[in-house]
């Protein structure tokens, strides 16, 4: 007991910078608890093949085309529910989706045949002839 009294008598007062406020203590405790709680989560990583990656991108491309407003209106005009079309694409196999995506990518965007191009060229030639003749 005597030693304790002597130790307390000669104890150095702690500087104000070393004292922690209650807010700092709570913050430190919260950080320690969150570090301990969140450190036990495990990540599961695996390799996927090129076929699976291509199938995912093809399926995403087909679904993005189906989600466009003009595509949905065309489907509804033909009596097909767009949600049912998306469900059908989800039920397709990877090979079917790949074939559909390839057909969509190779289809002509404006659906203009070669005769249409000739008409554009002839109209442009006529405009040029009549606009620039002397």
UniProtKB/TrEMBL annotation:
InterPro entries according to UniProt: PA2779-like
One Pfam family it belongs to: DUF6627
Residue ranges of the TM segments: 115-132
Parts forming coiled coils: none
Keywords noted in UniProt: Membrane, Signal, Transmembrane, Transmembrane helix
Endpoints of the signal sequence: 1-45
Name the record gives this protein: PA2779 family protein
Taxonomy of the source species: Bacteria, Pseudomonadati, Pseudomonadota, Betaproteobacteria, Burkholderiales
